[in-house]
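Page 37, top half.
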Amino acid sequence: MSFEHMDLTQRFIFDDADIRGEYVRLDHSLTELFKLHAYAPGVKILLGEMLSAAALLTATLKFEGKLILQARGDGQIPLIMAESTHDRKLRGIARGAEHATSQTFTELMSEGQLAITIDPIGGNRYQGIVTLEADSLAKSLDAYFEQSEQLGTRLWLACDGERAAGLLLQQLPPEVTKDPALRAQQWEHVTTLADTLKDDELLQLDSDTLLYRLFHEDEVRLFDPEPAEFSCSCSRERSFGAIASLARDDIQSLLQEMGEITVDCEFCNMQYRFDHSDFSELELQPDTPIQH
């Protein structure tokens, strides 16, 4: 399989240090997403960065499920979110952003909070929250990891509204290097090099060229890429289940009033329609709760 023109994530490690990295490139995913929503340029850029960050963070986790980034604020975007599953299925949305004109992170998301939710299949949800005080999404995520006292984690994100890319570096528990001072020195070394990265380099260079330009003096091992894609998890079955959770008399009333019940997915604009025949097995009678 050729990954030359595909959206992907790609892992790499430093053989002489306890540091790993992830690279992400998104092109077709943004095209598919922005076909569905007429977002302003600044909204597209931030949403592209959010999707890149979600894909990068998901790649660092050993789990089956999904990771959700969600930011709320008093700025021009009331709510924006991106979601990535463990197998790199991506979707995202910005709500209430019809009048957003800025391309500045602090104006788009002023007085905001960023929530990172890990939702494993068959497990308990975990959520962490950070106040959006930095001037970029990447710096806000850096602040989250710094305050959570986890292993050192840094992100670099870029989007031009048509494509997005990102780089993540993360410290690993001591194995190769035991000395704390040397570990700190190695971490400072690679993050200082990554800080020289420009947005156009991140967006235009392939992973091999990018990593060589940054870390050609280090022992870096690049693993095979993994495909990523825009994909919505909505379905007719899930939509039916949401309606079926209502009381039967409410369902009956809606059907009598409108003839059918529609469910619209705000992520992909798919519309699911249900009429009385779809609910025949529920034996709709007023005031009788549905058994699940």
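Page 37, bottom half:
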Amino acid sequence: MAKVALNFEDGITRFIETAGYETIAEASYRVGINIPLDCADGACGTCKCLSRSGTFDAGDYIDEALTDEEAELGYGLACQMRPQSDMVVDILASSTACKVEVTTYETEITELVFLSSEIVQLKTKIKDGTVITFLPGQYANILVPGSSETRSYSFSSLSDTDEMEFIIRLIPNTGLMSDYLRQAKVGETLSITGPLGSFYSRDITAPTLFFAGGTGIAPFIAMLEKLNKEVNNTVIKLFYGATTAENIVELQRIQSFENLQVLTYPCVSNEVSDTFASGFVTQWVNKEELKEDSYDIYICGPNAMVEAVKTTLEQQQITFKNFYTEKFIPTGTLTV
């Protein structure tokens, strides 16, 4: 049995499990997910999708439905693809078109930890014990109690449990969720919808760079938690910037992972620190520090930081094989 994450064009993700020799299409329709499908015989190409990770038996199909060039890029036909491992697959349609319902979980706050005067760690537990599955790096929408508005926050914990964890910046004066969290109590209810987003860790086997700004560290913690559980020996360089030293959070947690090779480069931009370097994460983007021929690169943080890293990588001619970004804005998350 293989677990397959289906990522839809509108950022919704649903997980299915294939039984026996089932194709992705068969497993999807069995649970009511109507992905694009027509002939179901490998002849039309309607169910073409893109494998992001994992292995599969491509089955039988004609060239008009799927060319050799497309197959080389990782495309396949869902009506023919039989997973040989857990997979992540891009479905070339929206979740609405495929009749996918987004899941909302009723959760109870179990812990609120102020990691600094500006950052809170929120932990919740799903009330009915349902297990939530997500890809590390994805986010959820949390309904602000007493309102109809939601805010988007990245998971900072392991998947496949009935617990969720988020690292949230408290916005002064105007933050609706921030105002709530400042006075929230353990035991209160939060409605959380997810998982969402296309920013998540792919198979990490090549030299990898993580750039985190502020609470943009959250998705990287989720990624590192999973990699540590899997015992991944790939060298990862984590460049982590914050405004002040107190806002460099969870660094000890990251450095305690025993089954990873993570090199951390923390820095602060708004003060002189005895503990951390001064400046921005871009100070390490140069050929002297980054000597590999090519990297997988992940960037998450405020818009200005993301754009600065992208510009500096280009100026310094740092080459990459894969490149993924997510920008944080005050009222939510925008993936590009």
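Margin note: The CA atoms of residues 245 and 322 lie 31 Å apart.
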